[in-house]
Amino acid sequence: DDLAYESIVFSSIVSTTTGDVWLSTRNSGALRVISNPENMSFETEHYSFGGTLPLTGNIIRFINEDSQKNIWINTDGGMICLVRDKATPKLIRKEINLDAKIIFDNSSISSFYSSKDNVYFGTNTGALLVFNQTSGSIKEVKLQNESSIKVIVGNEKGLVYLGTSGNGIFEYNESLSKITNHYFHSTVENVLKIFVDSRNLLWVETTLP
């Protein structure tokens, strides 16, 4: 479709393991740039609300790739997942079961993390959504004080860390499927970023106490 690029407000750029580049916008959906290294060419696909490649909204909150190379797009109108068509480079919408769809539609999602088997979504109301890739089921884990989950990271031991706004860091154990620790101190109250190093030590960026 024809785009008036001068009117688009771009917000972020995301590259994927397949070589695609995604451009998020604040008013026009998302652009997928597909490159062809053999002849140094590229083509662009436009995903938008009501467009040929439809999204649930035109304000993009985030675009992320999971461990199975699926693309998750969070918009002002909800969440969708795109999977690669086996026969072509095109992406098709993944069907999500009704229970999971209802939870996604009723959640204000703020963060994302993908492990081998699960996709984790943090919410602004302090709930962790755990989506299982194999079964398509979703589990909702509520945190105390309902603090917004701003960042999610994990390590090779199956521990997932949830950085919150105002309530420190929670540790979720994948094998036990529950919260196993809560780290709270005035120096790690409002978490901005978490990095897990090669020794599985956590490095945390916070606001000043």
Spatial extent as radius of gyration? 18 Å
Broad shape:
globular
The neighbouring-strand order within the major sheet is 1-2-3-4-5
Mean pLDDT: 92
Given the helix and strand composition, which structural class is it?
mainly beta
Looking at how many chains there are and whether they match, the oligomeric state comes to: single chain
The largest β sheet comes out as: 5 strands, mixed
Describe the structure.
The protein is mainly beta and 209 residues long. The protein is 4% helix and 52% strand. The strands form five sheets. Strands 1-2-3-4-5 form a five-stranded mixed sheet, with no helix packed on it. A four-stranded antiparallel sheet has the order 6-7-8-9, covered by helices on one side. Strand 1 (10-15) and strand 2 form a beta hairpin. The longest helix is centred in the middle third of the chain and has 8 residues, at 98-105. The chain is globular. The N and C termini lie far apart (49 Å). 30% of the residues are buried.
